[in-house]
Design a protein that fits this description.
The chain has 334 residues and is α/β, with parallel strands linked by helices. The protein contains ten helices and 17 strands.
């Protein structure tokens, strides 16, 4: 074999080797079928919303599905007693994926004691794990259960209806992790990957666990693993996540809480709905409270160690009067 042929053959082997290595670590964006049209999206708003399901004055949404029996069921799932926090460690440094960091400083430090101060300039910021109240997002000026935003959320008074104060008593329910990178045998999904019902049900078949009425569902695509591997990135521009075709599935499963690392997927191909379409539908039309920007890395590792992907979940939002959201550190208990 000539030296030229040998060099070309070696190059081909190296290239294919690198490709094989890369594909063992990540899953690239795929063609997941046609997009949900604006017409279909509007039809779903009209036909599968939960408005009025718990009465015309309801402000709890699917939290109504977390009954005393559901809490007892969740408590019975505790075996090892191991706990995992799902909140991201608060970040005080501004970066491309945390443009609105929290502000923290020491106020005093003396031989008699010390105190500090923390300020959340953006509760709904990209770098803060938080829970959305229904007073956060709207469709055509209407929020959960049909309340008119102009009458119930103002600059002077905040959220008069659908505030986070409705969750003052705390949330305790069964939690279920859907770890799609683990399903695919990779570290993280690539930006643009559209997680479909087929992916979710393949995970259920793999683990024998599925989410149901009153449960909290956590979706991992590997945001923080990708950050560790490649550095900070703009999650508004580079993310994986639910495809909009999942919306009817979420309604059918009747989950009470939806937690994720980022609320949508991008880059958003031409012809698809806006990035927050599913986020806003779940919050506003289905009445599902959302936990945005959760850190699910430790949960993923613990679930694998325990060899089970269901657990007891507790959430204690701050009792902020008229607040549209609250920082949280959800706790999974195995």
């Amino acid at each position: 074999m000539s030296k030229l042929k040998f060099s070309v053959l070696s190059l081909v082997i190296v290239v294919f080797g690198l490709l094989a290595f890369n594909q063992s670590k990540i899953v690239f964006a795929q063609d997941s079928g046609p997009f949900v049209s604006q017409e279909q999206f509007q039809q779903w708003q009209d036909e599968i919303n939960n408005w009025g399901r718990w009465g015309p004055d309801d402000e709890m949404g699917t939290l109504n599905l977390i009954t005393k029996e559901k809490r007892r069921q969740a408590a019975a799932m505790v075996r090892s007693g191991t706990t995992v926090g799902l909140g991201r460690v608060l970040d005080t440094e501004e970066s491309v994926d945390n443009p609105c960091p929290v502000e923290w400083e020491m106020i005093n430090a003396t031989p008699n004691g010390a105190s500090d101060r923390i300020a959340f300039r953006c509760i709904h910021g990209l770098g803060t794990t938080h829970i959305d109240g229904f007073g956060h997002r709207f469709f055509n000026g209407k929020m959960w259960n049909g309340y008119e935003m102009q009458d119930t959320v103002t600059m002077e008074d905040g959220a008069i209806k659908n505030a986070v104060l409705t969750m003052k008593e705390g949330i305790v329910t069964r939690g279920v992790l859907y770890d799609i990178p683990k399903l695919k045998g990779v570290d993280f999904l690539e930006p643009g990957y559209r997680i479909t019902v087929a992916d979710l049900e393949a995970w259920e078949a793999e683990t024998g666990v599925k989410v149901g009425p009153g449960d909290a569902m956590f979706l991992r695509w590997g945001r923080w693993s990708r950050r560790d591997a490649a550095g900070a990135f703009d999650t508004w521009q580079e993310a994986a996540g639910f495809d909009n075709t999942v919306i009817p599935w979420l309604r059918e499963r009747d989950i009470s809480i939806l937690g994720w690392e980022s609320p949508g997927y991008t880059p958003r191909p031409e012809g698809d709905l806006p990035t927050l379409a599913l986020h806003d539908f779940a919050l506003t039309m289905l009445g599902i409270h959302l936990i945005d920007r959760a850190d699910l890395e430790a949960l993923s590792a613990m679930a694998e160690s325990e060899n089970r992907y269901e657990f007891m979940l507790t959430i204690a939002p701050l009792p902020i009067p008229n607040g549209t959201g609250s920082p949280v550190n959800p706790i999974a208990i195995f």
